[in-house]
Amino acid sequence: MKAEASTNTETGMQDALGAMTEVLHSIETGDLTARITTAYPENDPIGALAACINRMTELLSERREETLSYQRALEGQIDTIEKQRVAIRELSTPIIEVWSGVLCAPIVGVLDSARASEMTSALLHTVVQTKASLAIIDITGIEAMDTQATDHFLRMARAIRLLGSECALSGVHPNVARTIVHMGIDLEGIDSYRTLRDALHRYVYGAGGKRRKPGA
């Protein structure tokens, strides 16, 4: 938008001031495309004021473009960080189907309450999705758990049973065992095995030692 003004007369001055007012109003409403066109030279007070307003508008426009560009870059970085966070979360709590109908969730590192909550959601979803009959939670790589994480962890095991699936623990570290005993938590209905191999062997062959067919 261009606001035109004449010169050399009082009317021209009024037109120039009106054009400036119009442009300033456009700036106020967010339109930074408006410019003042006047016949007054820049060494004239009116022309100098018009040029000043135009330069200010151009500067505001440049700054807004820079801000929008920075915002788009920031949004892209946030999106990348979120994808990386999801990838890290999936890698930190992998769920593997080690046998037809048997899931294994190996846990390595420190299991805090937040991580236990994420693993619970992922494991329960996978149990439902795959219709698994057994979920083995292998904690060979866990040497310690705080009491809240331990409670959350065992709630997860019970939730799996509520879905109609069995749940077994394998690789319980002595420190974890002491924590569970100290908390007085009842592990009834949740089998515990020395190793993941023992848990899978028990499921595949059963108490009678007869090999179970995949999916049976």
Structure overview:
With 216 residues, the protein is an alpha/beta fold. The chain folds into 2 domains: 87 residues, no CATH class; 113 residues, Transcription Regulator spoIIAA, CATH 3.30.750. Helix content is 56%, strand content 16%. The chain has 6 helices and 7 strands; from the N terminus they run E-H-E-H-E-E-H-E-H-E-H-E-H. Strand 4, helix 3 and strand 5 form a beta-alpha-beta unit. The chain is rod-shaped and about 105 Å long. The N terminus is likely disordered.
Q: Which CATH first-tier class of the largest domain would you pick?
A: Alpha Beta
Number of strands: 7
Segments where pLDDT lies below 50 for 5+ residues? 1-8
Q: Taking Cα atoms only, what radius of gyration do you get, to the nearest Å?
A: 35 Å
Q: How would you state the average pLDDT, rounded?
A: 80
**Class of secondary structure makeup:** alpha/beta
Under the CATH scheme, the architecture of the largest domain is 2-Layer Sandwich
Report the span from N to C terminus: 76 Å
Number of domains: 2
Element-level helix/strand string: EHEHEEHEHEHEH
Here the CATH topology of the largest domain equals Transcription Regulator spoIIAA
Short description:
The chain is an alpha/beta fold and 216 residues long.
Record the SSE blueprint:
Elements: E1 2-5, H1 10-28, E2 35-38, H2 45-92, E3 96-99, E4 102-108, H3 113-130, E5 134-141, H4 147-162, E6 166-170, H5 174-183, E7 191-193, H6 196-205
Helix pairs in contact: 1-2, 3-4
